Amino acid sequence: MNASSALSAPTATRRLGGSALAVTAIGVCALLGLLDVAGTAGLFADDGPPWWIVVPGTVLGLLSLAATLPALRGSGPALLTVVGTRLVSAVMGFVVFFDESAPHWAEVTVAVAIAVTMTAFALLVADATEPRRERG
């Protein structure tokens, strides 16, 4: 087996599934990562979140974005990075529901982001449990 045939072997896409479900789920996670990065602008708002939420959220968003393309190419560790960063980001978002000074729009935004995160995870689970057809 030479190097070029090893690179073109379908094992990498087999791990991820390469299906529309997986691609959609990873794309949604990338958009959520972009939302985390955009949240950096909240540092300068009067009613924005505290820095100790924004800075780690930005780092998580950047990690999600950096791992997106490798995950789409079938990298297992990259996919775990995307899922892990989105999970931690969603858990960090729960802080807004316990902060009485948080504006209502922040609660709505976090609730929608958590729901979308869970939807992306459900798509990944559906892809992982879907029976694979052998390619001919």
Written description of the protein model:
With 136 residues, this protein is mainly α. The chain has helices at 3-7, 11-16, 20-38, 51-72, 76-93, 104-129. The longest helix has 26 residues, at 104-129. The radius of gyration is 18 Å and the shape is elongated.
Kindly list the characteristics that best describe this protein:
136 residues; 71% helix; 0% strand; elongated; disordered N terminus
Task: Provide a concise account of the structure shown.
This protein is mainly α and 136 residues long. 71% of the residues lie in helices and 0% in strands.
Count every helix, treating DSSP H or I runs of 4 or more residues as helices: 6
The helix content is over 70%
Distance from N terminus to C terminus (CA atoms, Å) equals 21 Å
Strand tally, please? Answer: 0
Q: What is the typical, i.e. mean, pLDDT?
A: 86
Order of helices and strands: HHHHHH
Estimate the global geometry from the Cα principal axes. Answer: elongated
Radius of gyration: 18 Å
Question: How large is the share of residues in beta strands?
Answer: under 5%
Class per helix and strand makeup: mainly alpha
Low-pLDDT stretches: 3-14
Can you summarize the main beta sheet?
none
